[in-house]
Write a structure and sequence with these properties.
CATH topology: endopeptidase fold (from Nostoc punctiforme)
Strand content: 25-35%
CATH architecture: Alpha-Beta Complex
Number of strands: 9
Number of domains: 1
CATH class: Alpha Beta
CATH superfamily: endopeptidase domain like (from Nostoc punctiforme)
Order of helices and strands: EHEEHHEEEEEE
Number of helices: 3
Structural class: alpha+beta
Largest sheet: 7 strands, antiparallel
């Protein structure tokens, strides 16, 4: 049986550090390496790299434009949903771009004065850290660490 615990603030800082290691990686649908990665892949790979989620938890079957409610449900398997206003660096933000449904995700980073999001962004073709003022989070999740 797998048990889960919410990440500590120190672990969340490691999430941000690891996510920044992917900055500059090219965007690739269903990508799971530094040579190509998408927004869901970034969340999974960072959490997996740090040992928080097992390989078997990966999402491998989704459209290039994730379905809103399915995205929320699947990311919810890796963490606990929280109010976006309560998110801290290292938490996962879910956003929507030009659509009514959530369709994008990344990690909250930066600080309260200049919050940022680290995300694999198809429009720029790579993983980057952007000011949060350019996106509106519609949901947030605290990642969990899964152990046996």
């Amino acid at each position: 049986m797998l048990l889960s615990t919410i990440l500590s603030n120190e672990q969340k800082l490691h999430v941000v550090e690891r996510a920044r290691d992917y900055i500059g990686a090219p965007w690739a649908h269903l990508g799971r390496t530094i040579r190509g990665i998408d927004c869901i892949g970034l969340i999974f790979c960072v959490a997996n790299d740090l040992g928080f989620v097992p390989d078997s938890a990966d999402l491998l079957n989704y459209d290039r434009m994730p379905e809103g409610h399915k995205l929320l449900m699947e990311i919810g398997k890796w963490g606990r949903r929280i109010n976006p206003k309560d998110a801290v660096p290292g938490d996962v933000l879910i956003t929507r771009e030009n659509m009514n449904l959530p369709n994008h995700c990344g990690f909250l980073a930066g600080d309260k004065n200049e919050p940022t999001i680290i995300h694999a962004y198809v429009r720029k073709g790579e993983v980057l850290e952007s000011p949060l003022r350019f996106v509106k989070p519609v949901a947030a999740f605290e990642l969990q660490s899964w152990t046996k």
